[in-house]
Design brief:
Layout lengths: L7 H20 L2 E5 L6 H15 L4 E6 L17 E2 L2 E3 L4 E5 L10 E3 L4 E5 L10 E4 L6 H12 L6 H14 L10 H12 L4 H9 L4 H12 L2 E2 L5 E6 L1 H6 L22 E9 L2 E8 L6 H6 L3 E2 L3 E7 L2 H15 L1 H6 L2
Parallel strand pairs: 1-2, 1-5, 2-3, 4-6, 5-7, 7-8, 10-11
Antiparallel strand pairs: 9-10, 11-12, 12-14, 13-14
Helix pairs in contact: 2-4, 3-4, 4-5
Length: about 350
């Protein structure tokens, strides 16, 4: 199977999970694939790849998200057929959840489902499904899906499937620039290119087809980024009235979370997006030296060491103060060592 640079125990767990997943995909005939709230490139790329894999074998596939698909991902297979909803009756079908640490992470009230499959790479996953395939050491679920398909459905890795999986890995590693860019992520991406993925076409579609309104919103966002008194924490916010002013939606803020941490001297970046009055979806990002996941957990969320998030209600100014305090507490040793 695909290269998994890990312990024998983890290798065995992944092999077992992949084998059981292949059996389900071969035996079952009706699937519901669900992404997480505010689905990103990793989630949607992997969703598109499994959609094409399953549907090409004559099975029925229904795709669900709670949020509209961002325009820059509509070229992926199946994205124009996604049902955007907040509740869904699965009618006994297999439920395949992508990057959902819990069923509730989907944001959809799901009912009457049959077998459940849980594919994730986040360390806070609750292992709730009939089949749990969780690897917190993987760069992305796109990497995991590539290893799986390479082992069990190698002939299906071509054209749209290869493109979709490349999108998943490329976006979740920040174009192979984040600390999660492992040898397996790179060799998986190379394998996908060898089998039909087109990096130039993909990057043009994902990063270079922005509507003018989004560019103007981005300029407004960048001009409003501020740092704390130490210069080590940067915060940027988007409010509901700003989305309305620039004729944008929350999907248009995809990847905004990467900008605050890109400032020289900043250790951790904070992106706050108001999703309903006084309710903020907060993304925390670091360059790797600082950790952010404990702060997210204290505020009801979770994630990885360098990338985490949560949703919280309250006044923006008070929430910013709380985030800064928790980040400093979480990284006290780092602060001391850098003085």
């Amino acid at each position: 199977m695909g290269s998994l640079p890990v312990t024998n125990k983890r290798m065995t767990e992944m092999e077992t999970g992949f084998r059981l997943l292949s059996e389900i995909l071969r035996k079952q005939t009706d699937f519901v694939i669900v992404g997480h709230k505010n689905a990103d490139g990793d989630c949607l790329g992997t969703m598109g790849a499994f959609y094409r894999l399953i549907s090409s074998r004559g099975r029925d596939v229904t795709l669900l998200t709670v949020d509209p698909i961002p325009e820059n991902y509509l070229f992926l297979p199946g994205m124009n057929e996604v049902h955007v909803c907040d509740s869904y009756d699965c009618e006994g079908r297999v439920l395949f959840l992508l990057e959902c640490g819990t069923v509730e992470r989907s944001g959809i009230a799901l009912s009457n489902y049959g077998k459940t499959i849980n594919l994730d790479h986040h360390p806070d996953n609750s292992f709730y499904a009939s089949l749990n395939i969780v690897d917190s050491g993987a760069s992305s679920i796109g990497e995991m899906a590539t290893c799986f398909m390479r082992a069990y459905f190698p002939l299906e890795i071509k054209d749209e499937v290869a493109d979709s999986l490349y999108v998943a890995i490329h976006t979740d590693t920040g174009g192979f620039s984040y600390g999660n860019t492992s040898p397996t992520a790179l060799t998986s991406a190379a394998y996908l290119v060898e089998n039909g993925a087109d990096p130039g076409k993909i990057c043009a579609a994902v990063y270079q087809e922005n509507k003018l309104e989004r560019i103007r919103l981005m300029g407004h966002f960048l001009s409003g980024i501020q740092t704390d008194e130490t210069g080590k924490i940067a915060i940027g916010k988007i409010r509901l009235n700003e989305l309305k002013k620039y004729k944008c939606t929350p999907a248009d803020t995809d990847n905004f979370s990467s900008y605050p941490r890109g400032i020289s001297g900043v250790k951790a970046g904070v992106f706050m997006m108001e999703i309903s009055p006084s309710v903020f979806k907060v993304s925390l990002r670091s360059k790797g030296e600082w950790s952010v996941n404990n702060t997210a957990m204290k505020l009801g969320g979770g994630g990885h060491r360098a990338a985490a998030g949560f949703v919280q209600k309250g006044r923006a100014e008070e929430l910013v103060s709380e985030i800064i305090r928790y980040l400093k507490e979480e990284n006290e040793e780092s602060n001391l060592s850098n003085r």
